[in-house]
């Protein structure tokens, strides 16, 4: 139950952060560090990141970021798979 709320919070936080970074970029202000965007994505904001990239048209054409983003998603999938395998039958 708590996990669902944390995922929801990180989804909104990540979406908002992508939008904020885009807003900063348009105004020539100091940007949100890519490592923060990727950390929020890793911590459960993957859906928010994808929606933020689409909605704000942000970071979606930067190949170096997309490569890092893809690595984060693959790492998430690997960790989820390993956790499912480890905890299968324990509950």
Description:
The protein contains three helices and no strands. It has helices spanning 2-27, 34-55, 63-87. 80% of the residues lie in helices and 0% in strands. The chain has 91 residues and is mostly helical. The two termini are 16 Å apart.
List the helices and strands and how they pair.
Elements: H1 2-27, H2 34-55, H3 63-87
Overview in brief:
With 91 residues, the protein is mostly helical.
- In N-to-C order, the SSE pattern is HHH
**What does the largest sheet look like?**
none
Mean of residue pLDDT values: 93
Strand content: under 5%
Q: Structural class of the helices, strands and pairings? A: mainly alpha
The helix content, as a percent range, equals over 70%
Number of strands: 0
Q: How many separate helices?
A: 3
What separation lies between the terminal Cα atoms?
16 Å
Low confidence ranges: none
Overall domain count:
1
Estimated radius of gyration: 15 Å
Overall shape: it is elongated
Keywords: Membrane, Transmembrane, Transmembrane helix
Pfam families: DUF1294 (PF06961)
InterPro entries: DUF1294
């Amino acid at each position: 139950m708590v996990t669902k709320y944390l995922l929801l919070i990180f989804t909104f936080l990540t979406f908002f952060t992508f939008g904020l970074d885009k807003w900063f970029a348009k105004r020539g202000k100091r940007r949100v560090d890519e490592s923060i965007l990727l950390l929020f994505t890793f911590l459960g904001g993957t859906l928010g990141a994808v929606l933020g990239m689409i909605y704000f048209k942000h970071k979606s054409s930067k190949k170096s970021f997309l490569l890092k983003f893809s690595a984060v998603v693959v790492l998430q999938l690997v960790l989820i798979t390993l956790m499912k395998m480890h905890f299968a039958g324990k509950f």
